[in-house]
Write a structure and sequence with these properties.
By secondary structure, the chain is mainly beta. It folds into two domains: 4-20 and 123-250, Jelly Rolls (Sandwich), CATH 2.60.120.760; 33-97, no CATH class. The chain has strands at residues 4-10, 18-20, 33-36, 42-45, 63-72, 77-85, 90-94, 124-129, 135-136, 143-152, 156-168, 174-182, 193-197, 207-217, 220-230, 237-250. It is rod-shaped. It starts with a strand and ends in a 7-residue tail after the last strand.
C-alpha cells in the first residue's frame, strides 16, 4: 500500500502546517506479521513474504527482539529486519543485508539488552522562503519565486504541484518561462512552462500558471524551487501568490514512509 503525504506552502501561510494525508480507499487486508524465536529464526505469518537473506541463526537462546524495517533505495529494495541479541549485537536481514545501518550501538558483552526500535522519520516540510510579493523577474536566467524544504525519509518521488499569478509592470507584452528544480537554481528538472500576456495592464491583466511534475528524491533534506525567467518582451513579468504543494510517494510502496 502506497502512503501519500501532502504539504502546501503559500504566501498566506505564516507557519507551515501539515495539511493531511490523501489515501485512496483500499480493501481490508490481513495483519501480516513476523515471529522471532529465541535462536534467531524469523518466521513469516499470514502471508508475509519471507525475509531473504535471513538474519543469522544463533543456535542458542540469545535473540531478544525483532524490528521490521521497510526499505527502498538505490542499493536494496524490499523488506528488512533487525534482530537484537542479548549482548547488544544488532543483526540485519532482508534488504538491510545489502545496505546495513552505518552506525553501531554499543556491544555490552553480557545478557542485558532487551529491545530494539526502528526510528521512522516521516516526510516533513520545515520552511519556505521568498514569501514577500510581488516578485519582479528581470533576469533571463531562472530566479526562485518560491522554495520549500522537505525531508524525505526514504528514496522515492515528490509530486510537485506549483502555481503563481503572473502580471506585468507596465503596458505592452510580457513573457516568462516557469519551471521547477530540486536542490539547485541552475539545474532545471522540469520542462519550461512558457506563458505570455500580449497586452499588459497591471490593474487588469493577470494569468494564473499551474503545472505539476514528478521529481525523484533520495533520503534526506531537499529544497524544491519554483523558478521563473524573463523572456525579453517589452514588460517584465511579475509573480504573485506563488504556491507549492508536495506529495511524497515511497519508492517501494510498502511501509513507513
Amino acid at each position: 500500500m502506497r502512503r501519500f503525504y501532502v504539504f502546501a506552502v503559500g504566501v498566506a501561510v505564516a507557519t507551515l502546517l501539515f495539511t493531511g494525508a490523501i489515501v485512496a480507499p483500499v480493501a481490508a487486508q490481513d495483519a501480516q506479521y513476523y515471529v522471532l524465536d529465541g535462536f534467531g529464526g524469523v518466521h513469516a505469518g499470514d502471508g508475509a513474504p519471507a525475509i531473504n537473506p535471513p538474519t543469522p541463526y544463533f543456535g542458542f537462546d540469545v535473540a531478544r527482539d525483532l524490528e521490521f524495517v521497510p526499505k527502498g533505495n538505490a542499493h536494496a529494495t524490499g523488506n528488512g529486519v533487525l534482530v537484537l541479541d542479548a549482548f547488544g549485537g544488532v543483526h540485519t536481514g532482508g534488504a538491510l543485508r545489502a545496505d546495513p545501518p552505518s552506525g553501531k550501538t554499543p556491544y555490552f558483552g553480557f545478557d542485558i539488552a532487551r529491545a530494539i526500535a526502528y526510528r521512522n522519520i516521516p516526510p516533513r516540510i520545515s520552511s519556505a522562503s521568498n514569501l514577500s510579493i510581488p516578485i519582479l523577474v528581470i533576469s533571463a536566467e531562472y530566479t526562485s519565486v518560491l522554495s520549500a524544504n522537505i525531508h524525505a525519509p526514504d528514496d522515492g518521488f515528490v509530486l510537485v504541484i506549483a502555481s503563481a499569478r503572473m502580471s506585468c509592470n507596465g503596458a505592452g507584452p510580457s513573457a516568462a518561462a516557469v519551471s521547477l528544480s530540486i536542490d539547485s537554481l541552475t539545474s532545471v528538472n522540469a520542462l519550461d512552462h512558457a506563458d505570455r500576456i500580449d497586452e499588459c495592464l497591471p490593474s487588469t491583466a493577470t494569468r494564473t500558471i499551474t503545472f505539476s511534475y514528478v521529481l525523484p528524491v533520495a533520503p534526506g533534506p531537499h529544497v524544491i524551487h519554483l523558478l521563473a525567467a524573463n523572456r525579453g518582451l517589452a514588460q517584465n513579468p511579475v509573480f504573485a501568490d506563488p504556491s507549492i504543494s508536495l506529495v511524497f510517494i515511497d519508492q517501494d510502496g510498502v511501509g513507513a514512509s
